[in-house]
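To whoever is covering the structure queue this week,

Two jobs came back overnight. Logging them here so there's a record in the thread.

Job A:
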Amino acid sequence: MRADVAASGRFDHRWLAHATLKDMSWLRDRQGKAYSLNGADFARNLNYLGETMTWTTLQSGMVLFSPTRDMASQSMAKRRHFGSFCLALLYNFPSLVYRPLEPGSVIAYSTKVHQFHDWLLTGDGKSLRHFDTGMECGVQPVASMAACDIAALTASKSPVYFGAHPALTRVVHMWAGRRRWRPQRRKLKQIITRRRRAVGTRLLDERVATTDFHVISEGTTLITWSDIRRIRASFPTNAQTLYRLKSNSFPLWNWAKQDLSCTVPECANAGSALASHIFWTCSSARRHWEFLLDRWRWLGNFQEAELNVWVFGLDLPAIPPYAWDVIKQSMDPGSN
């Protein structure tokens, strides 16, 4: 919202009622295409948006749309279509949920911020009233938008430019600012993702180059990002931990001591605890791993030279020797 206001100025909803229904390029659907009315009954044989509905701001964040035609006797599908059209209006013009402008107010835009200054046109549109911090400072006659600019310049001693007001011009002007149209969403997404992708790639390279990371990285390189997403029977926090381990971005901050030490009180490590210590070499971590590996050894012995690779690669060695014999005996103790 702030980016739109900075780029295009404050939204003037008074012009929205004059938007044409013949060319819907000013309204976009969820796919970014021009909204299609598809012969909607609430807009049939009408030319402008203000002829189809009215809207009233009930409170901050809540706006009421009312069709000009009776929708009570219409089918549920047609009423849902009207609701979808209202949602599309809010999606394209979210400023509708905020406090509307007063009928006679004119929007000032320039490089200088005009804080606490307001300008209002009289009911007949022939005079411009200037307010400073709620106090009226003067009234000057005007006959056009250019005359409003000159009157404001005379009163404030600095250049002031106003967006078009319906009382003094017939040009449909929905945004008051230096640009006529807002930037395309596709362009904004490309700019945002390009920067984030570059930062993410740089941080990933720095994390991979971190010392003492090989204990975990040798195993996590065996699994791909898509493999982590396909893991079933796992909580979202588990998958998030795997993502962070693979990218070496696991948070290591000890909130209790406000440092990078190990969070286990009985741990003898007094320095900074890296991810390899927290998940592998710490005494508490070893107890958890031994609880699993001891039960794995019940099925037989296996080579433990690169155990960390198999553990963090989520791929323990093949079933140890005599595993099936142990399973059969547990199922039928009388069999050999």
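Job B:
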Amino acid sequence: MMTAQSATRDNLTIQACLGQCTDPCPVQEQFQLFQTVFNQLKLPPIVDRREHPRSDAHRGITIVVLAELVEAVNVFLEGNRQCPGGVLLAMSAGWMSRRPSPDHPDLDTLYIHQAMTADRGGQTYLDVFSHPRRVSYLVNHLTGFTTEFRRTEGEELAAFGLDTPTSSSLLLNRRADDKLLTTSMCATVGVAHPITVGFWLPGDHNLHQHYSNNYPTVTAVKLTSRDLDIRHVEAKVREFLTSGMLADYEKVFISLFGV
């Protein structure tokens, strides 16, 4: 189990396994941030199991989230609550590799060698695999588009010629980053979601046609130039906050589109 004293040693080991790394090393920073966040959430500390590579074959799907902490922690923990061991977090493209596909001679398949893993109860591990696991689906957030061009190593990893499905398409990123859209879709299919009010302006896409007002837990408010008056928005927010649906809640989270 990692302690405050062992954190520096383990982070240096992580940096070394990446080969070349910028200073400050983004993976080292993210790993330290992980420990801080888990401590604040009162989750158990990360257990470093790299001295004993995992040899157990995972027969189910392997979803890999290639991302920084801010983009990944919720998906990583909830994914493993629903599918223990099936959602892996890679904080660097150096933890993965491309190999010739066993199914398509002209394509490559992604494999993961090292990852953050978790069990259903929220215990997290840093693991290496004696036999790299084949990736069923890659959620690629280490791209210029998703990191404001701070990190782009995911682009080369997931370049053309893969038979591994990935999430790096511009259209899919735009949909996934639209919180009002994803919440509306959850409401439509009966997936648990937060009670939400969202404000949107007509833009250059037609995703708004999927925003839902058919469910009491989701309210989509279309704004016009006239409605940009702060008093109009304030009235809608006040109406939302005083609704009976929030009686059992203590906090409200505010998010900008795309954040």
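Note for Job B: The mean pLDDT is 79.

Please reply-all if you pick these up so we don't duplicate work.
Q.
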